[in-house]
Amino acid sequence: MNKINSLLNTRLGFFTLSVIFFWAKTYYGYQADFSLGVTGPLQQFILIINPIATTLFIFSIALYFKKPKSAYIALFVLYFLTSALIYANVIYYREFTDFLTVNTMLGVKSVSGGLNSSAFALVNFSDAFYWLDFIILIALLASKKVKIDPRPFKKRYAFATTALAIAIFSANLSLAESNRPQLLTRTFDRNYIVKYLGLNVFTVYDGIKTAQANQVKANADVSDMDDVLDYLNEHRAEPNPATFGSAKGRNVVYIHLESFQQFLIDYKLKDENGVEHEVTPFLNSLYHDQSTSSYQNFFHQVGQGKTSDAETILENSLFGLPQGSAFTQAGSSNTFQAAPKILHDNGNYTSAVFHGNVGSFWNRDDTYKSLGYNYFFDASYYDTSEGNTLEYGLKDKLLFQESAQYLEQLQQPFYTKFITVTNHFPYPLDDANVSFPRASTGDSTIDGYFATAHYLDQSINEMFDYLKAAGLYDNTVFVLYGDHYGISNSRNPSLAPLLGKESSEWNDYDNAMLQRVPLMFHIPGQTNGGIKEEFGGQIDVLPTLLNLLGVDAKSYIQFGTDLTSSEHDQTVTFRNGNFVTPTYTVIGSKIYDTKTGVLMEEPSQEVLDEVEKLRLGVEKQLNLSDSIINSDLLRFYTPDGFKPVTPSDYSYKKQKEQIDDITKKLGKESTSLYSKNNNTSTVDLYKTDAPELAPPASDSTTSEEESSAN
């Protein structure tokens, strides 16, 4: 013990203990909180050694300080910052099954509107381990059981430590390259870099790639559009003449089904007594309505930007970025050819978004201006007093009900989007709003998911009832879509028994199939709907909608194809490069039969060649889409008849006054519902059972007593 104490009283000894502690913590995180897909003894060995090199390198900075006290302070600062990086990734990974990128960290202010409170739901008691080592090191010095070494530290020892770190990293990289060639030169899943080289290396690597992307934007020119235009000319699908213009002139209402997965449609949850409860009866009725084209093989295609990625894809038919969110990285500065502006130029549509969170969340207040949205009703336009909101904004029933006062004032035709939030992780809902049993998987996230989905279903039902009563329903196209998964891959094995499968049998194919989300085009009065088998993704929604509205989309830069077209490309590209077709589901190097879910253990050369051709097409599609956003290429290309957006022309302040001014200027030519209704509001037609809007119990009691007395 005395020898250990003597060693710890030296700067090198205390440094060594710090490295051991940090290595142990990092390896614990790899095993406990990250699913890195480690297979075989070599990968396990690499995982063990990969934290050592960067830890030695970073901590060795403290050895270069001459003054002893400064050296120890520097070590603690470095220790704290690297610990914070690990723990931030742990919290982020639990929700997103991904690692923090530099752009995500830089954009943290833009996504902080709802993340702080929900982050607490991701914290576990075992997380104390991530900070226990730091506390122990401080305590050792504070208790004076270990003393600061007053002796100067020789620079050659500091250099030797840094050199040792570089040597270990070189050996680590060689082993990694032997197991995964071209690890840093090809686009791999972020898991690979963390698994082979560690979190610190991934963060540095990501920072370098981010800087390179910024440089690419600065160096771009008009010739960079040539490859994009050539690709789109080859892959464009001609509109279906039977559906083109079938909804021409109608209003458009997008309903964003937050975290809503396809398996919820027609799903019945059994309670503890074995009684079945239909989770989404209203959405089920829409799904099976002959006025609805429902796509049962429709997949979300989002990346780290999640909800904002879904918006990027649906508004532009461009993919989100491989790292971070296009809304936060490019939304304030890029040129877009988005749906709001296209429809304004082709039908004089008025556009608006309704979302009960702060306007800066995901940088929406800037991005919507760049997209050409006329109005954005954020939290400042709603009653967000205590009890009315959850982590990500206003409860859905309240959002829809309070939006009626703005919707009825919009000039028609309008293009609108309602972003719901109640069915969002961690799926909390107060008792007054719960009218559905919880599941009993033991995972609180999964157990609450069905109740919040049921609440969302009720809120949409109320909204549709209002639109019918107000007279807006019959002349509207409704697009209902799921934005991304609600249950993450890490939780899917716990969900498996509810879907009729053993947790032990769950595999990558099952994870891929659970990326299906609803897509419904509901067009009242039409009878050619039904459940469609075509495979598609969010990238295909805008071309499909434009063709339904009779807008020729061939001159616009869009990577999706019309779902109703006979030339529609049924290859569904995922953001990480995996893909699904009606024949193959390709996850990394694994090839599954899409129809049966069977893994092709020894695929024929013909299958391998076909899959490789598809893979190259997927990579090209993603790369070209990324080049458009990263290099802001649309500034070099303006379609005929399209007027580029000037963001400064839009203001989301005092929007009610803006609407009133337009109505007054138009006079009898005003097409708003309010004007068509002889300047009489329809808000009273909105019926909701939201308990927050119910009269106080004391008032109802008094009313009953007065009625009885009379």
Count the helices. How many?
25
Helical content class: 40-55%
Q: Cα-atom Rg, whole angstroms?
A: 28 Å
Poorly predicted runs of 5 or more residues: 699-710
What's the total count of β strands? 16
Instruction: Characterize the main sheet.
Output: 8 strands, mixed
Strands across the major sheet, in which order? Answer: 6-5-9-1-10-11-4-12
Overall morphology: globular
Mean pLDDT: 91
Strand content: 5-15%
Helix vs. strand class: alpha/beta
Distance between the ends = 90 Å
Molecular structure report:
The N and C termini lie far apart (90 Å). The strands form 4 sheets. Strands 6-5-9-1-10-11-4-12 form an 8-stranded mixed beta sheet, sandwiched between helices. It has a 4-stranded antiparallel beta sheet with strand order 13-14-15-16. It has a two-stranded antiparallel sheet with strand order 2-3. It is 45% helix and 10% strand.
Quick structural gist:
This protein is α/β, with parallel strands linked by helices and 710 residues long.
Layout of secondary structure:
Elements lengths: L1 H7 L2 H22 L7 H20 L8 H29 L5 H5 L5 H8 L9 H14 L12 H25 L10 H8 L1 H21 L5 H11 L15 E7 L10 E3 L5 E3 L2 H7 L4 E8 L7 H10 L9 H5 L8 H7 L4 E6 L8 H8 L3 E3 L11 E2 L2 E2 L1 H12 L6 E6 L24 H27 L5 E7 L9 H4 L12 H6 L5 E4 L7 E8 L3 H8 L23 E2 L5 E2 L3 E4 L2 E4 L11 H26 L24 H12 L6 H4 L20 H13 L1
Helix pairs in contact: 2-3, 2-4, 2-7, 3-8, 4-7, 9-10, 11-22, 17-18
Which key terms come to mind for this protein?
710 residues, alpha/beta, eight-stranded mixed sheet, 45% helix
